[in-house]
Amino acid sequence: MAHDAGDSPISRFFDPRGIAIVGSFREGHFGGYVIVKSLMNAGYDGAIYPVNPGYKEVHGIRVYPSLRDLSGQVDLAVIMVNARTVFQILKECADKGIRAVIIVADGFAERDERGSRLQQDIVSLAKRAAVRIIGPNTAGVVNTANGFNPCPYEAGYYRLRQGVTAISAQTGMINPQAFPYAQINFGVSKICDFGNKCDVDEVDMLDYLGDDRDTKVISMYIESLRDGRRFLEAAKRVAAKKPLLVVKAGRTEAGAKASQSHTGSLAMDAQIFDAVCLQSGILRLERFRDIFEMPKIFAAQDLPEGNRVGIVTVTGGVAVMAIDECAKHGLSLARLGGGTAAALEKLFVKLGTNPVDVGPMMAAVPNAFDLYPRILASVLADQHVDAVFTVLWATPAGNIISRYVETYEGLKARFRKPLVTWIYGPDAGAIAELGGRLERIGFPVFDTPEKCIRALGLLWRYASINRQQAQPVS
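Above: the chain's sequence. Below: its structure in token form.
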């Protein structure tokens, strides 16, 4: 039976009323000093309990000699001590009634046989005491809804834009110190690095995120699966409700060996994982960076009714390439309706054919940009078009950026069809400015035409999966 995410044991990791931080509070770029600073600056309003007998205070907050000295409500502990000391600290957490623990410390199964035994010992203790663990060897979690950002590494920023995409992985490369979340226009909801995932794993996270009201899209990087059947069942449940995007590493023998040394996990056979994706409705991603970029097509756009794509471009060469990409991703080139084609032909010769190349018109007609909003709106309005890919030319000269923004603002109020954009031009600053402004309106922008089409392909594939699941069984 589905549970409310707030009632899940995993919720203690993301919404604790109080957090104990056990480790060093020496000023630097890593450790308890950074966690306390990050929590304070990110807006977390729960209680913070630094624990270390060698300190009196940190950032104006009292430091307690031990966990036994804490008197307030503590739902979560973060442990950053020597691996050999973790077992004792975990025992103190259990005695104190702390049922969720993040172990940042490394030196466990990813290190050697001795580390593997240490990890087995803490898992056995945690099971006996009903304590859940994220880690060890993890950079932790983030919850943007409540400002909970206990990042142990200095990132230079602390508040992350709240969004609807949850990102989780077996690597700290998804945490704030490794990725510029402050510059993501669509934001995130939750972040979780499983580390060695000695306890909490991707299935636990799927169950939690599947019912999390703040999360609409789930994006994962996976190196291994502990229980493929359990993962398949969870993925099926969640993918029926929300898009589930996954990058699977360790596809080659060398990659699988590297995965084992990274987190102490054994990689799943690539062909088996491909079968899992097909059976569960997982949307397979190709590259690590995709877990950050591809979710925004789902965060901002409605699902398309079909796979027919309209292209409005200022360069014919990119349009040809886009058509080839459409074929790779199950999309087709839309054939414009007769009314749309005739209306566009009246504006400029040969404009009534998809792709709609406005480049010649821009060069030949004075004030041609005045016609651009009508052209784009006509293509979006065409009943034979299910989604649109646009190519924009950005230059700091004149007011072209503001004109594009005005056009897209007008489209936002009138159309619900998916619209993705690639921007090019002579000035990187102008490209970034225009892209940022369009995304803040709600239109995803990608840095290559190929990514634009791949994103539309994922959107269409998910729409197709939804339709298949919605069909009654005869």
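The longest helix spans residues 449-470.
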